[in-house]
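Q: Please design a sequence for this.
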């Protein structure tokens, strides 16, 4: 679902400037669900505006206004108007787990290899 800006006046972001954009939306999710806030591809490619902390997570117990952290990654100032589509929201079911403390982990072929260690040369 598209998320729109709900602002009293236009906001202009300079290059590399970020802004917390109000949406006017308040939701109550059931336990076991989260909302994820994601960038809009058209906004990113056409204006260089994207979401920071992406995807942003809204937990089921949050009751405040949904706000979106936008950043201007273009080389020009970009203006956001009230009603502009600024992000997308996806509702996702999440699992809750119970951690088990152990002293050793089972081994795998990858082991502790991090970024860039997928075995490709």
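A: Design:
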């Amino acid at each position: 679902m598209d998320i729109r800006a709900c602002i009293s006046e236009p906001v202009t972001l300079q290059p590399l400037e970020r802004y917390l954009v109000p949406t006017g939306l308040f939701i109550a999710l059931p336990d076991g669900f989260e909302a994820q806030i994601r960038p809009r591809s058209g906004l990113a490619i056409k204006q260089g505006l994207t979401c920071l902390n992406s995807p942003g997570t809204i937990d089921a117990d949050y009751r405040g206004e949904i706000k979106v952290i936008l950043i201007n990654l273009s080389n020009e100032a970009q203006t956001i108007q009230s009603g502009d589509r600024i992000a997308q929201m996806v509702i996702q079911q999440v699992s809750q787990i119970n951690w088990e403390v152990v002293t050793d982990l089972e081994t795998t072929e990858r082991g502790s290899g991090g970024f860039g260690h997928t075995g490709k040369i």
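Q: Thanks. Anything notable?
A: The chain has a mean pLDDT of 93. The longest strand covers residues 85-93.
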